Amino acid sequence: MIAAEKGFFHLNLRSYNNSRTKPVVLIRSVKTLINEKDSLLFGGYAYDPASPHIRYSKSGVTLSFTALEYSHPEDVAYSYFLEGFDQQWSGWGEKTEKEFSNLPAGKYTFWVKCKLGDEESKPTSYSFIILPPWYQSWWAFILYILAAIGLFGLLLKYQRLRDFKDQQKSYYNKNGSTKKSSAIWN
Known about the structure:
Elements: E1 2-4, E2 7-9, H1 13-19, E3 25-34, E4 37-42, E5 53-54, E6 61-67, E7 76-83, E8 97-100, E9 106-116, E10 119-120, E11 124-130, H2 138-175
Parallel strand pairs: 5-11
Antiparallel strand pairs: 1-2, 3-4, 3-6, 6-8, 7-9, 9-10, 9-11
């Protein structure tokens, strides 16, 4: 019961606390840098669960997020975690954007949550994949193997030619002849 000027107000605190909704956090946009210009990967609309593939040379990713809190937006704090890169959640802060640059190739999931007072939201996520550089792709490894086989073949051919010349030299020196003979491999 709360006293008022014209009577009393009855406040059911349990009902009030149960009706309060938890804060909600949304990812607004995901961008990557291409030729000094931002390229939008996700604009906060319909989320496609398929993870976008980002080329290795463009592995700088900027993620923007916001809480759906209109009455006290200055009291909202955020914490984030990049699964596959970070070891733990970040500390609570007011920033609504996080940039990751020079990420190694791999699959990542960005998690973000917000806090308003003591109420913490459920984490929201966005997944993406950084592709390996061209020199770590499967076709590059096939080229490496073919180059190694070719190099081995050239070394083998060079060694056989050297052995052949050594045999010729030894044959001519042993016989004292300066004539070339066709029967070298006897």
